[in-house]
Request: fold
Amino acid sequence: MNERIKFEAWDVEKKIMIPWNLWMFADTSPVTCYGDEFPSDGKYFILRQYIGLKDREGKEAIHYDLITHLDRNSGNSIEIVWKDGGWCGKYLRGRVVDSTDEFIFRLTQLEMSRSKIIGNIFQSNIFQKRNEIPN
Reply:
């Protein structure tokens, strides 16, 4: 895989996606949050990383994207997550994760070639439903 490492960020306050090339930092210290929330001047952002795979339409897959899968789809969306050292698909039940019945599978290029990106957890309100927005 010779893909560049790419990021974008979800602005929790403004509810918009910010491309990485638009970020400005006051110093040159590296950002090491790996998808977690981090404060920046009183604002909260969540980093999303390109996972190095594309869906069946050639769209780049990014952490927290939602996909449907031709072979695995049971009417539920699948969230792209980082688990056990690799990118995985995590089934969502009723558009909110049901942690008591979690099913996760490893995402490969073959799996992604049978999938279509349909959005992400932020723009579909799943993030807000999980009550992860800081007060």
User: Anything to note?
Assistant: The first strand starts at residue 7 and ends at 11. The helical segments are 109-113, 126-129. The beta strands are 7-11, 16-19, 37-40, 43-54, 60-62, 65-69, 78-83, 86-91, 104-106, 115-120.
